[in-house]
Amino acid sequence: MALIVQKYGGTSVGTVERIEAVAEKIIATQKLGNQVVVVVSAMSGETNRLIGLAEEVQGTKTPTGRELDVLVSTGEQVTIALLSMALQKRDCDAVSCTGGQLNIRTDNKFNKARIQDIDGEHLKKLLNDGNVVVVAGFQGVDSEGNITTLGRGGSDTTAVALAAAAKADECQIYTDVDGVYTTDPRVEPNARRLSRITFEEMLEMASLGSKVLQIRAVEFAGKYDVPLRVLSSFEEGPGTLITYEDDSMEDPLISGIAFNRDEAQLTIKDVPDQPGVAAHILGPISAENIEVDMIVQNIGRKDTADFTFTVHRNDYDKALKILENTTIILGGGRIGGNPNIVKLSLVGVGMRSHAGIASRMFKALADEKINILMISTSEIKISVVIEEKYLELGVRTLHEAFELDQATEVKTKQQVQ
Amino acid sequence: MALIVQKYGGTSVGTVERIEAVAEKIIATQKLGNQVVVVVSAMSGETNRLIGLAEEVQGTKTPTGRELDVLVSTGEQVTIALLSMALQKRDCDAVSCTGGQLNIRTDNKFNKARIQDIDGEHLKKLLNDGNVVVVAGFQGVDSEGNITTLGRGGSDTTAVALAAAAKADECQIYTDVDGVYTTDPRVEPNARRLSRITFEEMLEMASLGSKVLQIRAVEFAGKYDVPLRVLSSFEEGPGTLITYEDDSMEDPLISGIAFNRDEAQLTIKDVPDQPGVAAHILGPISAENIEVDMIVQNIGRKDTADFTFTVHRNDYDKALKILENTTIILGGGRIGGNPNIVKLSLVGVGMRSHAGIASRMFKALADEKINILMISTSEIKISVVIEEKYLELGVRTLHEAFELDQATEVKTKQQVQ
User: Fold this and answer.
1) What per-residue confidence (pLDDT) applies to B417?
2) Which of A140, A320, B183, B188 could make a disulfide contact with A106, Cβ separation 3.0–4.6 Å?
3) Strand order in the sheet with B132-136
4) In terms of CA atoms, which chain B residue is nearest residue A136?
């Protein structure tokens, strides 16, 4: 008997009708001889409604604190109760569990807690009593019994953590897309669903803006070797399986193209080139909790350096102000910036062993007269920053240049069977 | 330093504005030098919304079971979070507690659990740390950690139980009326607010349909000698204090007139008069969880008995069917019934020592040609069943006959001071 963990997001449980449909899916999975653990999010709109109340009471656009977690955790609690009722109505034994009831132990960082431990024994007992166990995602308790939440979207992490704790055979993330694509189909209509992708590639795809899965959930799944599958709640299909690299696979060169519209670029030129200059520049930025993405440093004109980095577009103005202060402290430097840039990334474990990917990428962009503003590379990805207006053209150009629409179809079919 | 438990119902916390107003009231109480525990209900409408979802999923008008409690308990959890935020915004240290977090231990009767134990020590610790403690009413946990609810309106009980556990000096129930009245002012405009009433009288008033307080809360308060005060959330005023009978009080004869519109009468005539006949009739009724209120048995025609009782009007049809079966088993009896009756009760500890109250009551009704269908009496009340159409006339008649509009004003003022 296999143990399957299924996770259904807010859209999948957004109405009573959809909750009933999810109940049918769960029962079908159980009838195939599986034990089933289900993790659910709040009904779509509910978390925003609750946060809206908190905003009103706290008088701020970014409510925080212990009580926020007490508040928003009710969203998932409503869903577990309703889904359990829907299962019971269909003569399926089901029991709901809040994060606290399953002792999903987290640290005490309210609003963005991290899971530390899960009582897998209690979960196993409920399963062995014949229940479908319906768990509230996104929430836990700290060591003092305070309710914590994992931050928005954290239900994926709950599902993977439960799968790891219970040694599940597969963790299935049901969402409103039917898998991971070579790139965003809204930008490139020829984008193709991948039947498999590695954890590493998925991490790059997720962090680069393919928002199918929460990045922390993928990290977790990779760390504990939990096979992860992304499927659609609304359509039948095998989805995309995320696993460790399989030696028998003939890896395609490139798995996909990720992009991120929300970036902004900041440059500080001609700063005195001395040890610690990078820390002097980035220290005050991170002290203000601004996350920095790409970082490039070049030698500038004699004894000075040029330093460029990207931040989330929302942080652009704030970062610019901080840099102005930094130039005063450093005694020099000219500041520049561009909030209208995007990052485009080619991702694939296959590129490790293949030379020439980068030059092929740069040439394809150059042929379309797309100027590259920054470059950064890793083992399995190459990212470039380009002007925002070239985003769609850039994606389509690379998709075609690397023939991503032409699937390694034979291999895919074998894998699915 | 006194310890005050305050309870605010759903209307009092029905909007963010009202929650803010409640926060102000709490802080005012604290500034008088009191420690404050606050018990809150769900925001008005919220419990009905949640039950509506359960009805939809369970496909029934009366949802039940473990998961219903998981669902509806979120209503109070939302309120404790928002009220705690509102207090914190005003620089008042506050901490919210669910029933589970305060270990409000109940039995395992879902949807209508009873409180068995409260962890008063944890509550005391939170108070001594300088917090206003904001507690979710109406909920607890059983010995296995399952969420339970006390049944609708049970927040009053939570407040009294907490007051008893923490040995509070007073338990204040804030509601949308400013106290307990001699009768319903919508029926008798001359109805008068009582400054004091005894637990016993309050029990009779509450169980007879004066729905200011939950009856179980009054029982609890009486049992643990918790001074209970009913006040308005929206108007200033001393409300009504509910305490043990004070020997120095010169009791008024009658405190008030309660009535209950929701009754129905069932009669079974000419049943063989043998030992155990009452049990034969009522056994099957209570087996179906139908609550019986008044019971009267008369001798009928030779060797037979006439048996009459009242039930909630919703149970009338069901009870009638059961009785039909009972006559078959008993081998005789004619069934009659009337769903259009009401119960009217005169309540007052003073009637114990005063003869003639009953006859004065019956004469007043007879003068208005109101026919009495059933009578039942106790130490401190006299109840009559009359046709529904006479309800308003009956209440006004008795209110006037016992001069309830003419308060024992001098005494009342002394008590308030």
Assistant:
1) 29
2) A140
3) B94-97, B132-136, B35-40, B3-8, B170-175, B228-232, B240-243, B196-198
4) B70
